[in-house]
Amino acid sequence: MGARCRACDADEAHCHGTLIVHGAGRPECTEDGCGTPELTMHTFVVDCDVVACECGQPIGSGARFASSTGLASSSG
């Protein structure tokens, strides 16, 4: 039997995943099947820019994509 956390022992609604908060849109959890998207149900919460999410980039900006994939933009 694996270790249990206090919330598990107390039978409280919670999630062991990390909640990723996007600037626009619904937060997403790293735990498959997470049924508790509320911030208070997660111990770990990060902004999406921490995980290199592109939703925080200015429209038309390909800088993050190009640097993360190794692709260079062609300038003609």
What does this molecule look like?
Helices cover 14% and strands 20% of the residues. With 76 residues, it is α+β, with helices and mostly antiparallel strands. It has one domain (6-69). A 3-stranded mixed beta sheet has the order 2-1-3, with no helix packed on it. A hairpin with a 6-residue loop joins strand 1 (15-21) and strand 2 (28-29).
How is the topology of this model organized?
Elements: H1 6-9, E1 15-21, E2 28-29, E3 42-47, H2 63-69
Parallel strand pairs: 1-3
Antiparallel strand pairs: 1-2
In short:
This protein has 76 residues and is an alpha+beta fold.
Number of helices: 2
Distance from first to last alpha carbon: 61 Å
Largest sheet: 3 strands, mixed
Q: Are there runs of 5+ residues with pLDDT below 50, and where?
A: 64-76
Tally of domains: 1
SSE series: HEEEH
Radius of gyration: 17 Å
Number of strands: 3
- Oligomerization category of the chains in this entry: single chain
Whole-number average pLDDT?
75
Percent of residues in beta strands:
15-25%
Spatial arrangement of strands, main beta sheet = 2-1-3
Structural class: alpha+beta
- Percent of residues in helices: 10-25%
Overall geometry comes to: elongated
